[in-house]
Amino acid sequence: MDTVSFTKMEDGTKEEYAFLKPLYVQCREGIPEMLLGLLKRMQGDRLGYQIDRYQHSLQTATRAERDGSDEETIVCALLHDIGDVLAPDNHSQVAAAILQPYIIS
Fold first, then answer.
1. Which of 35, 63, 72, 86 has its CA 20 to 30 A from that of 100?
2. Whole-angstrom Cα distance, residue 63 to residue 65?
């Protein structure tokens, strides 16, 4: 099978969803690289500030690490502005929505 035949999720068969499952797993496994790509896209333009958003993100994560924060907090500090690449006007909400499934509450 190369593709599923259904056009509505409710019409999918057990076999089609079994076919899709490893593809979703593969997609999820690529998320760290995608997030780091968003982080790297913030290099360059300083938007009038003394440093660019990439450097700002590195500073934020470094400060969290120096403060003794746990790994999860450091990663969130590093990636807190990744939404800026996609939606500058609500970048914090975008970043939070992307990271939320990976945060232990």
1. 63
2. 5
Tokens of 103: 């945060």
What's the pLDDT at 68? 98
| Predicted confidence (pLDDT) at residue 105 exceeds the cutoff of 90 | no
Structural domain boundaries of the chain?
11-102
Q: Which CATH class is domain 11-102?
A: mainly alpha
Q: Which residue has the tokens 């593709």?
A: 3
Q: What is the DSSP string of 49-94?
A: SSS-HHHHHHHHHHHHHHTT--HHHHHHHHHTTTHHHH-GGGHHHH
Query: Are the CB atoms for 39 and 79 separated by under 8 Å?
Result: yes
Contact 18, 3 (CB under 8 A): no
Identify whether the C-beta of residue 75 lies closer than 8 Å to the C-beta of residue 48.
no
